[in-house]
Amino acid sequence: MRCPKCANLEDKVIDSRSARSGAVIRRRRVCLGCGHRFTTYEEIVRARLRVVKNDGRHEDLNREKLVSGIERACQKRPVSAETVEGVVDAIIDDLERDYEREAPSQAIGQKVMEHLERLDEVAYVRFASVYRRFKDVNQFMSAIQGLVAKEDG
Predict the structure, then answer these.
(1) Please, are residues 63 and 92 in contact by the beta-carbon 8 Å criterion?
(2) Whole-prediction pTM
(3) Which of 6, 89, 125, 150 lies 20 to 30 angstroms, CA to CA, from 42?
């Protein structure tokens, strides 16, 4: 690994740790030329997952779009930014496990709803109202009754 300070190619790994639930290895290194310490991350490189939209278009899976949608649903709820990042990581891991190269947008929305339902019921209903395009209060009531029935059951 090239030292970011002196560009020497010789270094020594002084510490290795698992990160992001085992998906990444974090390595602390020391340059044998100048003694500078730096950190590197090693992870599996996967083919970029693409989304198949309802109208047939294809686009790259946009992590920031997922984060933004979940943050919007969790606005003014007791959900930290770290928790949102963890949910997005879990959703992307699920999608990469279930789909090799292309995931339908409906599957992504469904995964988000599954995770939000476990995380925060208000955020779930907010997201579901947009995702399922609720047209009236009866659809809200139906979604809420479904949540209450799951809790009672």
Answers:
(1) yes
(2) 0.62
(3) 6
